[in-house]
Amino acid sequence: MSALATLRPRALRAARGIKPLRTTLPAVRYLQTDADKSEPIGELPSSSSEPFQVRLHADSFHSYRCDTPSTEVDITKDELIGMYQKMVQMRRMEQAADALYKQKLIRGFCHLAIGQEAVAVGMESAIDHEDRVITSYRCHTLAVMRGGTIKGVIAELMGRVDGMSFGKGGSMHIFTPSFFGGNGIVGAQVPVGAGIALAQKYLKKKTVTFAMYGDGASNQGQVFEAFNMAKLWNLPCVFTCENNKYGMGTSAERSSQNTSFFTRGDQIPGIQVNAMDILAVRKACEFAKEWTTSGKGPLVMELVTYRYGGHSMSDPGTTYRTREEVQQMRSEKDPIAGLKRYILDWGVTDEASLKAIDKAAKEEVDLAVEDAKKSAHPDVKEFWTDIYYKGTEPPFMRGREKEEVHFYNK
Amino acid sequence: MFLHAKTPLSWRTQIRLLKRSIHGASIDEPSLARHSRPARIAPNPPAETSGADEPSLGQSDILLGTSEQALATPGIRFADGHGLRGPTGRGRQTRRMNLYQAIRDALGTALSSNPKAVVFGEDVSFGGVFRCSMGLTEEFGKKRVFNTPLTEQGIAGFGIGYASVGGCAIGEIQFGDYIFPAFDQLVNEAAKKRYGSGGSYPLAGGSLTIRAPIGSVGHGGLYHSQSPEGFFLGAAGLHVVIPRSPIQAKGLLLAAVRDPNPILVFEPKILYRAAIEEVPVDDYTLPIGQIDIVREGSDLTICSYGTPLYTCMRAINLLQDPPPSLLPFLPERLRPPNPAPSIQLVDIRTINPLPIPAIVEQVKKTGRMVLVHEAGKSGGVGNNVAGEVGRRAFEYLEAPIGLVSGWDTPVPLMYEKFYQPDVIRVFDKLVETLSY
């Protein structure tokens, strides 16, 4: 697994006389990226809503300038099953988007998060709807988690009025009241996220903003501008680097002098998380929320994950990595398979009920796709709306020809 | 209604307005347009000019299909200093290439002719998303053809630095739409470096070329179909070049790479595969800053660049031989058996600085002008050219300068084809301008 072999902090890799500031990581230990290495502590309770403790693998976290999160996670059986259900739904939804794209029902740009489900679902299980999330163009799953619907996402991708942006945004631009959207420009959302966190601090809310970006976007200058502002003002912002190992077609090692993205914040502490194990993601997000809302300022959180597909629909995803690498991740480290193993091995429920969940997820997504297909394309008059805030438009907007000039009636 | 306007108008203006309302020609002020006559041509193009019957870009007369035509390209200059017979005296070779192959050919030529030349950008060492750098890494090595992080601001800044110390930097911004993070570097650093350093930088031999694909393809939407050239109009010091075909692309790109000024080369992305020509295989350049007359004519001058040139050519052809369904929309004078109007088509090629004197000269020759581009009207090239031509050739103009452009909206995902100037809109504007 050469692609994952370089996850140790650079500070430790190169002993160039620069002493790592404070890290809990012994020099040779790697972050482990298996999805199924957690074990319950003691017997599971009989009640499905009674919490029990799970111990994560000891190398699920690394940290920089702070202590690592505890490896003990509180969870209930219901929550485990709920997570499983959501992850399966999200994968089905992304697969449906893939198929619709290939049928040319989705046009334009489409970035799928197949393989990265534990990020969106795990994060959602640790935060609430007062918290804020903003992310890059790979946003479908988060949009659903943050209060959207599968039909709303699929219809948006297809450019239909039932879409969450009424068919005017497309794949990369989906929003909910607690989710500030996908953003098409690499890295541009990170300073925006810092601004959202500033608002939270200013309004004295005990809430947090997760400003998400990829390993590719980590090299955008404005990400560092955002880091600086957030630390300067101690904003409750978790800079969440979703490290799926490849920024488009260039691996992190080929694009970044420091691939330990959790150490990129300089004065900002950071944690690195095995984001193939959904329980580690949940624990890390709880830790991050606690850290930021207790007035300690921002945190950089690197979620180490993997995308099975290409960067976008036009990228087969096999020119810059081997098929074997993808196959190995799919077969050995899949987050859904990992959670499934927990559920079955710990006796949370039986295989038949998981099959029923799988089947229901497929049906739900199929139905959403059918509903979305029935939805109309936006009316042509929508061309003129939302360019300016309603009621503040100029008297008219010019179309192509004089007959197409649109007059706003105030 | 014009004669009842409250503001007193001169008799000359009144007569002109009256004439205009008789002819039904459109005026640009929307407040007046609201009350004007209904469209002479329905907004929906007639069936026979749309859909399956439309000739594809690749069949356009603009593209040069033979070696003879290719080698006769105006302004072509071969780097070996020999003429069309070449150093051997046995003539020059051409090869069929599409636009991305011509770019690849130019990049290869630039790298092999200058050891200080480097090619970099997002994913370029895998060939780039549009395959413009296919195989360059294998041929010239990883040190000269390399991937950058996803850092547009960094790519521009990095290129500027490399050029400053005498290197030949050829950067790629993956889509013209992503050039905005680099805007500061390009406008504030690249364009002003020489002026600010009193001519000290870039050092001799230094040159910066940034390539980026622009224009719509039918389904790119907000962030993959824009035409940002207009934003660079005010950047004194920066050149912006837009080629229309493979021959032009190779010649202009090589000229840009060897030019000491920072140059942006915007490549119309829909042409990458669609446009195929016989391209001279030798190292040659085409002049930057000069217009190219694609088609001669005496009644009207169309000025355009990039993809819309193909649309203009089709509109011209429609006017030469109008199909029966369009005949009712043509005034008597423009209909057979009267001779078809003679339309001139000019490729502006260089957007910044605009070759205004050359354009004015062409307009003076014909007296009428229509500008066509894909970018929106406001802040675009069209109004800049129209303003200058209006000032300098006022007495020569027989009609208001026509402008067909994209809308002043974001490039819409679902209706992108309606954003692009189409053949009927150009045709209509030609008729309107010719019958004014």
Automatic annotation (TrEMBL), chain A:
Recall the GO molecular function terms of this protein's record: pyruvate dehydrogenase (acetyl-transferring) activity
Please give the biological process terms from Gene Ontology that the record holds: pyruvate decarboxylation to acetyl-CoA
Cofactors:
thiamine diphosphate
Per the UniProt entry, the Enzyme Commission number(s) are 1.2.4.1
> From which residue to which does any coiled coil extend?
none
Q: Which residues form the Dehydrogenase E1 component domain?
A: 86-380
Which Pfam families does the UniProt entry name for this protein?
E1_dh
Tell me which domain of life the UniProt entry assigns to the organism this sequence originates from.
Eukaryota
Database matches in InterPro entries: DH_E1, PDH_E1_Alpha_Subunit, Pyrv_DH_E1_asu_subgrp-y, THDP-binding
Q: Which reaction does it catalyse?
A: N(6)-[(R)-lipoyl]-L-lysyl-[protein] + pyruvate + H(+) = N(6)-[(R)-S(8)-acetyldihydrolipoyl]-L-lysyl-[protein] + CO2
Family annotation (SUPFAM superfamilies): Thiamin diphosphate-binding fold (THDP-binding) (SSF52518)
Q: Which UniProt keywords apply?
A: Oxidoreductase, Pyruvate, Thiamine pyrophosphate
Q: What does this protein do?
A: The pyruvate dehydrogenase complex catalyzes the overall conversion of pyruvate to acetyl-CoA and CO(2).
PANTHER family per record? PYRUVATE DEHYDROGENASE E1 COMPONENT SUBUNIT ALPHA, PYRUVATE DEHYDROGENASE E1 COMPONENT, ALPHA SUBUNIT BACTERIAL AND ORGANELLAR
The entry's protein name is: Pyruvate dehydrogenase E1 component subunit alpha
Lineage here is: Eukaryota, Fungi, Dikarya, Basidiomycota, Agaricomycotina
Automatic annotation (TrEMBL), chain B:
SUPFAM superfamilies for the chain? Thiamin diphosphate-binding fold (THDP-binding), TK C-terminal domain-like
- Tell me the segments the record calls region Disordered: 29-59
Question: What are the protein's GO molecular function terms?
Answer: branched-chain 2-oxo acid dehydrogenase activity
Instruction: Look up the EC number in the record and give it.
Output: 1.2.4.4
Q: Which InterPro entries match?
A: THDP-binding, Transketo_C/PFOR_II, Transketolase-like_Pyr-bd, Transketolase_C
Enzyme class comes to oxidoreductase
Q: Name one GO biological process term.
A: generation of precursor metabolites and energy
Q: Which UniProt keywords apply?
A: Oxidoreductase
Annotated Pfam families:
Transket_pyr, Transketolase_C
Cofactor(s) needed? thiamine diphosphate
Domain (Transketolase-like pyrimidine-binding) ranges: 97-274
Q: Which reaction does it catalyse?
A: N(6)-[(R)-lipoyl]-L-lysyl-[protein] + 3-methyl-2-oxobutanoate + H(+) = N(6)-[(R)-S(8)-2-methylpropanoyldihydrolipoyl]-L-lysyl-[protein] + CO2
Span of the signal peptide = none
Entry's PANTHER family? 2-OXOISOVALERATE DEHYDROGENASE SUBUNIT BETA, MITOCHONDRIAL, 2-OXOISOVALERATE DEHYDROGENASE SUBUNIT BETA-RELATED
Indicate what this protein is called per its UniProt record.
3-methyl-2-oxobutanoate dehydrogenase (2-methylpropanoyl-transferring)
